[in-house]
């Protein structure tokens, strides 16, 4: 049987037998054999479109070893379906160039590699949300060292797979190196907070809560039922509407403190304080932050600053952008919250006036999101600590005209 690379070359370029001319095939036919049927054989789909591998070309390369180096369109498709490489027989699109996301999913399925549980993803590519259809396979391939993305921490899932990269994908999925490259989605990057501690009944401060004293954090990899149960317990424990920690005073509100507390107990990270420009410059130069000194090289993160933080830093901490505050994005956000995921809505006024940040929480029998006539969410069920702290309730605060600096929905595992 041909070696792996010979098989791979055959998968991409075709075998020498397939490249024979009709005259050569006739000459090669043994004497006395019945003439070949005059009905022309169904043409093979292309293996590549220019420099890009087609879906058929990749499938053929993945199943060729199991077919003993021999293939036809029918055998390739049947073998690919049997391995789960093609999940939908009605949408094979054999002649279409395969995208990078499709290539990873197909290669991982071919080798029986399960998607990474989204609860284990602590860092995301900026262009692969945890809601992306191939997120589990892409992040599992990243964790196994099969792929590492690009220097700018993107994966470019919708770009075509170049033929030059075909061998690395197939070989990597078959025998993962086990060592992730420069981007490991399981490792949380950066500083979590200044100090652990702080009490729920105390005044707002720059410290995270004592999670264990408050019942521990949510397990993002637990079952949906357990996630939702724990999420509701956290919402009840924080009790935004009655807690002294979030009670407005002297014209100040504490939506940012609540967002940090909620995310912290949910196993995610929203900064209570963050680095100033000089500290960030040190990090960009050395890869390390200086020792944190509250009030000197760190500062309080208000909602307006948090809006920008999510876009700049959020992906490094596992946050994925769901969208703006249109009904489709709001519906997706509520769906994810109902699944026990961490969902944040943040609005920036673009001025010195305060912005706002809230947590979308699971709907209950008593507290539901509001919908439009088409059934889409217009006001998610939220927990928040603004001017009128609310433990649970539907609200469309983001529609106020003052939020001119931007509005966004983010999700964490």
Written overview of the protein:
The protein is of the alpha+beta class and 413 residues long. The chain folds into 2 domains: 4-18 and 44-174, no CATH class; 212-412. 30% of the residues lie in helices and 11% in strands. The chain has helices at residues 4-13, 22-28, 55-63, 73-83, 100-110, 135-143, 166-174, 224-238, 255-265, 277-286, 303-313, 327-338, and strands at 48-49, 52-53, 273-275, 298-300, 320-323, 342-348, 356-360, 370-371, 377-379, 381-384, 390-394, 406-412. A 6-stranded antiparallel β-sheet has the order 5-12-6-7-10-11, sandwiched between helices. The protein has a two-stranded antiparallel ribbon with strand order 1-2. Strands 3-4 form a two-stranded antiparallel ribbon. The longest helix is centred in the middle third of the chain and has 15 residues, at 224-238. The protein is elongated.
């Amino acid at each position: 049987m041909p070696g792996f690379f010979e098989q791979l070359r055959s998968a991409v370029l075709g075998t020498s037998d397939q490249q024979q001319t009709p005259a050569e095939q006739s000459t090669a036919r043994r004497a006395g054999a019945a003439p070949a049927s005059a009905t022309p054989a169904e043409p093979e789909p292309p293996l590549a479109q220019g420099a890009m591998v087609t879906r058929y070309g990749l499938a053929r390369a993945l199943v060729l070893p199991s077919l003993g180096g021999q293939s036809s369109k029918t055998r390739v498709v049947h073998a690919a379906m049997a391995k789960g490489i093609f999940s939908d027989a009605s949408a094979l699109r054999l002649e279409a160039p395969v995208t990078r996301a499709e290539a990873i999913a197909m290669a991982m399925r071919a080798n029986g590699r399960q998607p990474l549980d989204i609860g284990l993803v602590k860092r995301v590519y900026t262009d692969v949300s945890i809601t992306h259809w191939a997120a589990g396979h892409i992040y599992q391939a990243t964790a196994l060292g099969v792929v590492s993305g690009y220097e700018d921490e993107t994966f470019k899932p919708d770009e075509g797979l170049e033929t030059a990269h075909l061998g690395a994908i197939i070989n990597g999925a078959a025998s993962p190196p086990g060592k992730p490259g420069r981007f490991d989605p399981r490792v949380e990057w950066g500083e979590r907070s200044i100090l652990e501690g702080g009490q729920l009944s105390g005044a707002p401060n720059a410290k995270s809560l004592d999670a264990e004293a408050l019942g521990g954090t949510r397990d993002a990899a637990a079952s949906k039922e357990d996630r939702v149960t724990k999420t509701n317990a956290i919402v009840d424990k924080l009790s935004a509407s009655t807690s002294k920690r979030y009670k407005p005073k002297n014209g100040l509100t504490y939506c940012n403190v609540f967002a940090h507390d909620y995310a912290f107990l949910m196993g995610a990270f929203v900064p209570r304080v963050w680095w100033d420009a000089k500290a960030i410059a040190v990090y960009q130069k050395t890869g390390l932050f200086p020792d944190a000194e509250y009030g000197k090289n760190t500062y309080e993160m208000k909602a307006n600053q948090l809006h920008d933080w999510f876009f700049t830093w959020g992906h490094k901490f596992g946050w994925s952008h769901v969208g703006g505050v249109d009904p489709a994005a709001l519906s997706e956000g509520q769906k994810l919250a109902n699944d026990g995921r961490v969902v944040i809505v943040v609005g920036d006024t673009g001025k010195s006036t305060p912005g706002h940040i809230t947590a979308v929480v699971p709907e209950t029998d008593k507290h539901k999101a509001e919908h439009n006539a088409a059934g889409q969410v217009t006001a998610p069920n939220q927990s928040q600590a603004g001017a009128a702290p609310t433990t649970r309730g539907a609200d469309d605060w983001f529609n106020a005209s003052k939020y001119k600096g931007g509005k966004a929905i983010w999700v964490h595992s």
